[in-house]
Amino acid sequence: MNTLTRRRPARFAAAVLTAAMTFALAACGGAADDKSDAKKPAAAEAGFPRTVTHDKGKTELKAKPKRVVALDNSLVEAVVALDAPLVGGVGSYRDQKGFPPYLGDAVKNTKDVGPLDSPNLEAIAALKPDLIVSATVRHEDLYDQLNKIAPTVFVATTGPIWKENVTLLGQVLGEEEKAKAKLTAYQTRAKKIGDAINAKNPKQTYSLVRFLDGPTRIYLPKTFSGIILTDMGLARPAKQQDQKEFNIEISEEQIGQADADHIFMTTFSGGEERKKKFLANPLWKRLNAVQKGQVHEVEDAIWMTSVSLQGADLVLDDMAKIFKVDPAK
């Protein structure tokens, strides 16, 4: 064997050794990097800790919430819409027992800590939440007690600011992009259906009447269902436009204030007798919408009390069905 032939195996072995050492060093470096990344807290990568400004002040959230309790049905649905882990919520109010069926499996493991007017503080504490959300209009007197159980965030109210509440909860839950995307999808769908209705029924007006066990109300543009009609671009009667009030309470003698080309009518628990009296009144029978056969009875639990993205989508379903237009899904 000549000298050249003897050197080739040696050179080859050296090359293999060098490559192996390089690979080993790269692997060690990768492991070190992985280990370094592993030390980074997941919460920090998701934008936590963070301080959230809300209706009762400021609340620090040290990590992304993983055990949420919501003490208003609107906020229950907002948390579900944002796919956050809801361990407790209010599902009982008035004659409603349990969470709305349209929430499905999203609340199958959620404990009902209601009723709405007096939530069970012991049951809430037993769930060991890392976030509690509610509304000042609901539980202002309970804020300090709730805040001792877990970091607590309050919105001011629900109906008039239901979309803003979804945005705030997106910030609280670390789901800002999801909140933005879902609100945009709702707005887009509402406009499409509204445009189709207006094309089919140009220059027509729409009114909302709710029968309760107390007063009968006309719901104005600054309500949950009123906001949906506005987002659809549907016109209200002139006297209902630009109103700052939430609603107008009317007697039977004031039925004429409810008139429009179309009336959407709902009945809350206990309002059946009042509805019966109104509908039997000759003044009701003179309404433009009644004479045209354009009074649409819709579900109160969806149009009035859901106050959520889920409820808004169901209202849009109803509108598409009533006016026989594309549901834009």
C-alpha end-to-end distance: 81 Å
The pLDDT mean sits at 88
From the 3D coordinates, which CATH architecture of the largest domain would you assign?
3-Layer(aba) Sandwich
Q: What is the CATH topology of the largest domain?
A: Rossmann fold
Strand content: 15-25%
Which CATH C-level class of the largest domain is it?
A: Alpha Beta
What's the alpha carbon Rg, rounded to whole Å?
29 Å
Low-confidence residue ranges = 1-43
Structural class: alpha/beta
Q: How many separate helices?
A: 14
The tally of structural domains comes to 2
Q: Using DSSP, what is the number of strands?
A: 12
Question: Could you please describe the fold and organization of this structure?
Answer:
This protein has 329 residues and is of the alpha/beta class. It has 2 domains: 50-174, Nitrogenase molybdenum iron protein domain (Rossmann fold, 3-Layer(aba) Sandwich), CATH 3.40.50; 184-322, Nitrogenase molybdenum iron protein domain (Rossmann fold, 3-Layer(aba) Sandwich), CATH 3.40.50.1980. It is built from 14 helices and 12 strands. The chain has helices spanning 3-39, 42-45, 73-81, 121-126, 136-139, 143-149, 162-173, 176-200, 224-232, 272-280, 282-285, 288-291, 300-303, 309-322; strands at 50-54, 57-61, 68-70, 86-89, 111-112, 131-135, 152-155, 206-211, 216-219, 247-250, 262-267, 295-297. A 5-stranded parallel sheet has the order 5-4-3-6-7. A 5-stranded mixed sheet has the order 10-9-8-11-12. Strands 1-2 form a two-stranded antiparallel ribbon.
